[in-house]
Design brief:
Pfam families: ARM_PUB, U-box
Order of helices and strands: HEEHEHHHHHHHHHHHHHHHHHHHHH
Strand order of the largest sheet: 2-1-3
Pathway: Protein modification; protein ubiquitination
Number of helices: 23
Radius of gyration: 26 Å
Largest sheet: 3 strands, antiparallel
Organism: Sesamum alatum
InterPro entries: ARM-like (IPR011989), ARM-type_fold (IPR016024), ARM_PUB (IPR058678), PUB22/23/24-like (IPR045185), RING-Ubox_PUB (IPR045210), Ubox_domain (IPR003613), Znf_RING/FYVE/PHD (IPR013083)
Helix content: 55-70%
Strand content: under 5%
EC number: 2.3.2.27
Shape: globular
Number of strands: 3
């Protein structure tokens, strides 16, 4: 009874901004429509899946059903939840520390217990988070210790701290400069590789997100991609994990650094096409995995920009078939990525085996449906070229038996 009363007290104190207008529950993954109204991802996706073309709160007609993650609101909700849990557990908890104690921890010798207290301090309020995140000396200290430490637990906790800091304005540029700065001996990227290899799934996800965040220019992308073992670990995170958040984080980081042909060729050698094919065939069509499918198809589109990538995709029959099956089944973004990949192998590369595989799984009908949908002009143009190729393929296939029968007729 007492527990239910405490839950009730918490329920009535939830800020209205944190509630989804549809479910009225605290939002787990807030996303905004083009109208500016924010909803929980699962709730708005169910609404749109029912065929509604309006904003539930305003009833305005939606010119676009694309959603944008509201990262600021999500961070505020996470901070509020963490603070609420601490308050419920012990309002006068002895683990709470002051700003001066936080400074002492930052300037002292790091251990997992003191860093855990610092994380508790940072997540207690937005003010505390900014106090640490806006201190150049503090951020420099975290990066310095991360670069020198070979203790996996210390590395994991510092990665968690850097993940919290990364949400603040200007953090990307500062982290990019500090993490990629050359130093003596072991560097910071080696520590990220260590966490990706030996850390928990949660730590791996946060490491991948930070690497994606700091890949802001060709030089940083090159440094990350060329760091020994890092590309392989990110590939492994995408290919071996069953956790959808881990797969998405791995693919997102790979997309951020796969900007040059050598990197794409190395990913193809590692087996990224086969891995993506398994992702496409292994995941269902539900909303929670939509972003994973979008990233997977975007990865194929990226490697399809080089000859080796188009060849690998064409040779993987399962991959080509799954691309066709995903058209119009996931999202507009996923469909446009899929069309670009099919155009690359069927029209740009003109690979006969790829054309045949697409035709066999009713690809022509699917492409025609995409043409009639609300797709972009460039996608519609690629669909037009695909239709010509697939119709020609279908015509040749239908005429083949007749040609075979008539080749042996003896002329008069």
């Amino acid at each position: 009874m007492a527990r239910e009363k405490r839950r009730e007290e918490l329920y009535v104190t939830v800020p209205s901004l944190f509630r989804c207008p549809i479910s009225m529950d605290v939002m787990k993954s807030p996303v905004s429509l083009c109208t500016g109204v924010t909803y929980d991802r699962s709730s708005i996706e169910k609404w749109l899946a029912l065929g509604h073309k309006t904003c539930p709160a305003t009833m305005q007609t939606l010119p676009s059903t694309h959603t944008t993650p509201n990262l600021t609101l999500r961070r505020l909700i996470h901070l509020w939840l963490a603070h609420a849990e601490v308050s419920q557990a012990s309002p006068l908890s002895s683990s709470a520390i002051s700003k001066q104690q936080a400074v002492d921890i930052i300037n002292g010798e790091f251990d997992s217990d003191s860093l855990a207290k610092l994380i508790g301090f940072m997540t207690a309020s937005e003010e505390n988070l900014k106090f640490v995140a806006l201190s150049n000396a503090a951020v420099s200290r975290f990066v310095e210790v991360l670069a020198k430490s070979d203790e996996i637990r210390i590395c994991e906790v510092i990665v968690e701290i850097l993940d919290l800091i990364s949400t603040e304005n200007g953090a990307r540029e500062r982290l990019n400069e500090l993490i990629l700065k050359s130093g003596d001996g072991r560097d910071c990227l080696s520590s990220f590789a260590l966490v990706l290899q030996k850390g928990s799934t949660e730590s791996k996800v946060k490491s991948a997100k930070i690497l994606e965040l700091i890949a802001v220019n060709p030089e940083s992308q090159r440094r990350i991609a060329e760091k020994q073992g890092l590309l392989y670990e990110l590939y492994s995170l995408s290919a071996a994990e069953t956790d959808t958040s881990a797969v998405e984080a791995g693919l997102s980081a790979l997309l951020a650094i796969s900007t040059t042909r050598p990197v794409k060729k190395e990913l193809i050698r590692l087996g990224i096409v086969r891995a993506v094919g398994k992702i496409l065939s292994g995941y269902d069509y539900s909303s929670p995995v939509r972003r994973v499918i979008e990233k997977a198809l975007a990865m194929l589109e990226t490697v399809a920009t080089c000859t080796e990538g188009r060849g690998a995709i064409s040779e993987d029959g399962e991959c080509v078939v799954e691309i066709v099956r995903r058209l119009m089944k996931c999202s507009g973004v996923a469909t446009e990525h899929g069309i670009t990949v099919l155009w690359s192998v069927c029209c740009l590369a003109r690979d006969p085996s790829a054309q045949e595989k697409v035709a066999k799984v009713n690809g022509l009908t699917k492409v025609l449906l995409v043409m009639q949908s609300d797709c972009s002009g460039s996608t519609r143009q690629m669909c037009g070229e695909l239709v010509k190729v697939l119709r020609a393929k279908s015509t040749k296939s239908n005429l083949a038996p007749y040609e075979t029968r008539t080749t042996h007729i003896t002329p008069y």
